[in-house]
Amino acid sequence: MGGKVLAERKTEMTTPLQILSLGAGVQSSTVLLMSCKGLLPKLDAAIFADTQWEPPAVYEHLAWLETEAAKAGIPVRRVTAGNVREATLNGFVRAKQAHDHYAALPLYVISPAGIMGRMKRQCTQDYKMAPIERFIRRELLGLTKGQIAPADAVEHWFGISADEQRRIRVSEQHWKTNIYPLCNLPGDFLPKMYTRNMCMGWLRENYPGRAVPRSSCIGCPFHSNAEWRLIKADAAMWADVCEVDDAIRHADGMKGEVFLHHSCRPLREANLDEDQMTLPFVEECLGLCGN
User: Fold this and answer.
1) Which pLDDT tens digit goes with each residue over 49-69?
2) Cβ distance 248 to 257 under 8 Å?
């Protein structure tokens, strides 16, 4: 279903468009496939925001989801705001040119005095939320830049499960309502709420033998040590992420040293054997990247 058709549907002021933010992880895959099977209302579209730095398994799984969704008449759209890996390598210098800015990833820093901290996280907003919202407004609703959207034009679905309800957010936009079907919010979508483990069980039962990968950027600083170990087990991904980690150490414009790992040690030297309960900085991913 193209943007023109969806825009015409909205012009008729029938029902809100039902759009899923698709991370291609366990939960959002479950929501999309439940919609394909009729267990959830049929989506008008699912949108995957591509940071261009996801593991190869994610792109393979996404291609499979596109095929499955097409069978049910649900289009899956890919959008991108650019390559977050390249931005991480090239985005430290501010104001040399109008478009320059600091890297979007929440990288860890240690000052010359040994004080540890973390850079501001911009990646979720810049590489996930903004391109999806832009696509909805421009392509699906047919709005021009700056045009005011009709009230309640979109029901924006998210694959956040019942064990992650702290990540639920009420939309601040008048034109869209945030929907969390796995949590039955707002309203009753399913006979029961689904946790991540329950989603995995549902996927195994309905798509036996189909593995759903963990969806997140290869070099996400929010990785746990367990996730870093999985990346290290893949020689190509480990070489890729270590190359970035080495390159950002003495970033232009930064007084301290910059790292991908929360210990503020080079990835090649970091102790990945310990399974920490929490990261040293509490502000975690809002669940919009990898669900």
Assistant:
1) 999 999 999 999 999 999 999
2) no
CATH architecture of 3-98+122-219: 3-Layer(aba) Sandwich (3.40)
HSE value, Cβ hemisphere, 13 Å, CA-based, for 53: 25
Decide if 61 contacts 24 (C-beta within 8 A): yes
Average pLDDT for residues 242-266, to the nearest whole number? 90
Give the tens place of pLDDT for each residue, 18-38: 999 999 999 999 999 999 999
Separation CA 219–CA 213 (nearest Å): 15
- Evaluate if pTM is beyond 0.85: yes
Structure tokens at 97: 């040119």
Strands 108-110 and 116-118: antiparallel
Query: Do 45 and 214 meet the contact criterion of CB atoms below 8 Å apart?
Result: no
